[in-house]
Amino acid sequence: MNKNSNTYQIVYSAIMVVIVGAMLALVYMTLKPKQDINRDNDTRKQILAAIGVTPETDSDVASDFKSHIIKEYVVNENGEVTDSSQNAAFNVNMAKNIKQAKRKLPVFVAKINNDRKYIIPVYGAGLWGPIWGYVSINADGTTIFGTNFSHQSETPGLGARITESDFQKEFKGKHIYMDGAFKCVEVLKKGQKSIDGAESVDAISGATITSRGVSAMMSDCMKPYDLFFKKIQGSTEK
């Protein structure tokens, strides 16, 4: 075949595309299991961070998660458990779940210092992209024990500060119920007060939209758990 002909060049290019594609597919399949493990461990770290647990090394993540997360399940808006199978809550994709008319409501039950905590995943929008996190609720079902927030592309030094402990620790001890009614903690400019009497934390200076995003995210994602929280408040579950 004439190497200078169009036919030769087309055939040669097609063969190279097939070879390169096969090599890339092989590399992807080889690395995917490790990538999945790393992704899952990163999620476990974020969940543990909501109860103030930080694994010493990456190899400790799975064991720390297993020792602190004693149960997980999915509930509906009536507060009823609909799925308690293994990894039922862990496998819920919040980015997709948040768009559903009837959402799955994942719950992680943690035990720390012989006390029970309920960890709720939250997902929303910041200034430049998605934000997400985990909020842990005390056994009383009315107060926040801890939070952990993450983001995809918020501005460093501004919106990205939602990941900093100074911002997150402000939520600790805040009430999500006032006079028996669900009133999620709001993120407001310093000096402002909630119009419905909810407790608040100070917004991040210069990051108004991201701060509002955190506030909206928590309200939107935690409100559907209202009946679940009320069952906890009136329960002596062991």
Notes on the structure:
The protein is an alpha+beta fold. Helices cover 35% and strands 24% of the residues. The protein has six helices and ten strands, in the order ααββαββββαββββαα.
Q: Taking strands numbered 1, 2, ... along the chain, how are they ordered across the largest sheet?
A: 2-1-3-4-5-6
Helix % is 25-40%
Secondary-structure-based class equals alpha+beta
What gyration radius follows from the Cα positions, in whole Å?
Answer: 23 Å
Question: What percentage of the residues does DSSP assign to strands (E)?
Answer: 15-25%
Q: Could you spell the SSE succession in H and E letters?
A: HHEEHEEEEHEEEEHH
Largest sheet: 6 strands, antiparallel
Distance between the termini: 79 Å
Backbone shape: elongated
- The poorly predicted ranges are none
Nearest-integer average pLDDT:
92
Structure at a glance:
The protein has 238 residues and is of the alpha+beta class. Helices cover 35% and strands 24% of the residues.
Chain-wise SSE layout:
Layout: H1 6-49, H2 61-68, E1 69-75, E2 81-83, H3 94-97, E3 105-112, E4 115-125, E5 130-138, E6 144-151, H4 165-168, E7 177-178, E8 181-182, E9 186-188, E10 200-202, H5 208-222, H6 226-233
Parallel strand pairs: 9-10
Antiparallel strand pairs: 1-2, 1-3, 3-4, 4-5, 5-6, 7-8
Helix pairs in contact: 1-2
